[in-house]
Design a protein that fits this description.
- The structure is a single chain.
- By secondary structure, the protein is α/β, with parallel strands linked by helices.
- It has a single domain, classed as Rossmann fold.
- Helix content is about 35%, strand content about 25%.
- The chain has a five-stranded parallel beta sheet, with helices on both faces.
- It starts with a strand and ends with a helix.
Length: about 190
């Protein structure tokens, strides 16, 4: 039985996206961890238009059925791993939009970040860290950044370097400890 649920949120819906292989790798690496259930949450399964709620998300008064479904899904989890590409020094528009739809569902939970891009996607993570802080989403220090040049063959076949395994273990350790601690805050 799992005492924690962690979502691995795939932050790209682009055709031919590299993110699916990265997210699958993260879920695969998390498989043997005791007391924690990791679940892939693919934004392609939650088609959200550009934010269309009339009332600010901080009020929690969602009108759209798509928003209610998204909120219910996100509320299930104690923490999140955001898997993001880097587009123009930032995260993907679809991920930012999905995050912006909600507020309370993110509060007092833990987050970690995994990125990929020509420079490893680190700038996308830095943007997401500031967004997470505003949402009262406690983000851990450890991150994973995959380079399109060294962790992908021909920029499309994901073949991560071995050093990422140890970094992933550290990321899981940090995320799980914070998620457990914050679960007590939420009561």
């Amino acid at each position: 039985m799992s005492d924690l649920k962690i979502a691995v949120i795939l932050g790209s819906t682009r055709p031919g996206r590299n993110g699916k292989a990265v997210a699958d790798w993260v879920v695969d690496r998390s498989g043997a961890r005791a007391g924690v259930e990791y679940e892939l949450v693919d934004l392609a399964d939650y088609p959200l238009p550009h934010l269309d709620e009339a009332i600010p998300p901080s009020m929690g008064q969602y009108q759209g059925e798509h928003t209610k479904a998204w909120a219910a899904k996100i509320a299930e989890f104690d923490g999140y791993i955001f898997v993001t590409p880097e587009y123009n020094h930032s995260t993907s528009g679809v991920l930012k939009n999905a995050i912006d739809y909600l507020y309370g569902e993110w509060n007092n939970k833990a987050a970690a970040f995994v990125s990929y891009g020509s420079l490893g996607g680190a700038r996308a993570i830095e943007h997401l860290r500031s967004v997470a802080s505003e949402l009262q989403l406690a983000h851990v220090r450890q991150q994973l950044s995959f380079s399109l040049f060294t962790d992908f063959e021909n920029f499309s076949l994901f073949k991560p370097a071995e050093q990422h395994d140890a970094a992933a273990t550290t990321l899981f350790d940090q995320l799980e400890s914070w998620a457990r601690a914050l679960k007590t805050v939420r009561g």
